[in-house]
Write a structure and sequence with these properties.
By secondary structure, the chain is mainly α. It is 94% helix and 0% strand.
Length: 107
């Protein structure tokens, strides 16, 4: 009697394994991804939209970051001017004088 019991247990195990594999495949969306890979137009359209979204997101993020950095830089420069630090003031004055001299020499 051990023979038939083993066969039914073995068949039951195989059935359970098949059901689990089926569930895993459905959850991992392998078939949906495979269909997408086979449909070249849809794949290209999805990649185009993804690239467009990434580009817009990058542009907006960079703009916000640049605005914040410029604002902080202006605040720091205002505080430096308010402190009236002689070394930096002299350096900036020398730099302005050099630019003016160069402009005079070009005329």
């Amino acid at each position: 009697m051990d023979g038939p019991v083993d066969k039914t247990d073995n068949e039951r195990e195989k059935k359970e394994i098949k059901e689990r594999l089926s569930d895993v495949i459905e959850k991992s969306r392998v078939l949906a991804n495979l269909e997408l890979l086979l449909d070249k137009r849809r794949l290209m359209w999805n990649n185009f939209l993804a690239g467009l979204a990434k580009g817009v997101g990058f542009g907006l993020g960079l703009s916000v970051l640049a605005a914040v950095l410029i604002y902080l830089l202006v605040m720091v420069l205002k505080s430096i001017v308010a402190l009236n630090i002689p070394l930096i003031g002299n350096y900036i004055a020398d730099l302005v004088q050099l630019v003016q001299d160069q402009m005079q020499n070009q005329r």
